[in-house]
Amino acid sequence: MSLGRIGQQAKQCLKNQLEHQQLGAFVPLTSNTESILEHSRKADERHDNGRPLSIIDGQLIAIKDNICTTDQPTTCASETLQAFYSPFSATVVERLKAAGTIIAGKTNLDEFGMGSHSVNSIHGPVKSSGKIFASQRSVGGSSGGSALATSTRQCFTALGTDTGGSVRLPAAWTGTVGFKPSYGIVSRWGVVAYANSLDTVGVIARSVEAAKQVYDVIKDHDPRDPTSISPLTRSRITSQVSCRPRNKTFRIGIPREYLLKELHSSIHDHWSLALRSLRKKGHSVHVISLPTTKAALAAYYVLAPAEASSNLAKYDGVRYGNRAPTDRDISNVLFSNTRGHYFGVEVRRRVLLGSYTLSSTAIDNYFIRAQKVRRLVQDDFNKVFAMKHPLLQHPKEPPSWTSSEEDKGEMGVDIIITPTSLNLPPLLSSLQSDNKDPTKQFQEDVYTVPASLAGLPAISVPAPSTDWQQVGLQVMGQYGDDEMVLDAARELEEVLPDTAGPAD
Fold it and tell me: If exposure means fewest CB atoms within 10 Å of the residue's CB, which of 79, 91, 292, 425 is most exposed?
């Protein structure tokens, strides 16, 4: 039987998967060619009959390998979960299948989502698609496999998870769009947890519109997820957003604290040129202050490992995960060798750090203080946005779109635009030397972590670049104002082709 339009597109994606197999975007043995082509034929029939299940019916979507699926293993790139099959699929996977999409396979990642370069994996590192193999560069992490698979057209779009920038950073370094919705809007049920209060399922696509189409399918309330925003609260958010005055232009905030001396000059130039182009279209640019930004990264790397140490306690070879042969000897401690043998270096480092910060001797000085910093980060954002935080506003209080500084005659901003990353993608070979000082890798999250701590919607939009000089610009908005963030990202997407400057 001949293939229709969707079938031909699926066939091309499968061909691209074979051609780019050495890049390590997909976890081995997770694509079923015959099943994918059969599903694409059925999708073609639905479209031909004028009855598609959704606007994304028939699209191939890759799934990060820490999101559960029943028909493919969920390994989290960890030896402890090698060959593990989940008895259920995540809610986001169920909703994508109900919309007619086809799972293209499971994508590679940093083990349990812990890393910024997608190199901490039992499946090997994810490598950039540069022309010179000896100069392979990082694709970012931890959703690097999803980003690279989308960039190299091995799928239409992909799902990732964003804890402190794990969707946005890979998107910036692969020339794709990476969208992290407001915390609690998309279900986390069936997602292997790293840090419960930060984890958010995000979308990686080649355009803002494609990301929005997937987001619209997966964003509804899920009663199985206790962190999912309830229908009543969603209604409040929608009501407040819909009552907002509609303007054709945006008030854009530029945090002065984000003008770091370490920022690469090429990224700074793209940022400046993009803002200049947006001003030409009538949007206004305003310098704002987010003073707690300087402490956000340190707070994140206290809170996230603390939650991770708790979440990963169950992988002991007794309740979950593979069991080390030496732990089968009854003379040994029940599971100490299992955790030391099967967890990678980065996971062990973060579990140890998190366990210490939660200990009775350190919790007050580290964990509690980090929680206070997190609250200050949220307060900083609330002071600069025109729209009040919908979850902090009493249901009977009339909607307000001005900041607490209105009495000074200053209006708040609609969105904030910043760089996504501090640097251009580093060489993979240089990361080996960075292992001596792992905190160097943490610095790449400096622009993405604040939005994660505050639970805000944020999206990375690619700027034109050379083969390896990938640059992303980030748009952030008030909590629940995801649609405005997407609208602003479209505006940024339109002006970015005009902002390409000379390569370094």
Answer: 79
In eight-state DSSP terms, residue 137 is: B
Residue 371 token pair: 């929680």
SS3 label, residue 265 = helix
Query: Own/partner pairs for 315-320, CB < 8 Å, 24+ apart?
Result: 315/78, 315/80, 315/81, 315/339, 315/342, 315/343, 317/80, 317/342, 320/80, 320/81
pTM of the predicted structure, to 2 decimals: 0.94
Written as six digits, the tokens of 499 are 């902002």
pLDDT of amino acid 429:
85
- Is residue 485 within 8 A of residue 202, CB to CB? The reply is no
d(CA 167, CA 179): 7
In this structure, what DSSP letter does residue 190 have? Answer: T
> Could you give the dihedral angle defined by the CA atoms of residues 455, 496, 488 and 266, in that order, rounded to the nearest 10 degrees?
30
Instruction: Indicate the helix (H) or strand (E) that contains 433.
Output: helix 428-434
State the catalytic residues.
64, 142, 166
Give residue 500's pLDDT band: very low, low, confident or very high (50, 70, 90): very low
The beta strands (E) that lie in 261-376 are given as: 284-288
**In the predicted structure, residue 326 carries a pLDDT above the cut 80:** no
Alpha carbon dihedral 417, 476, 398, 390, in 10-degree steps, equals -160
Dihedral in degrees, nearest 10, Cα atoms 422, 427, 430, 436: 50
CB of 432 closer than 8 Å to CB of 441 = no
pLDDT classification of 123: cutoffs 50, 70, 90: very high
Helices (H), 158-264: 168-174, 208-218, 231-242
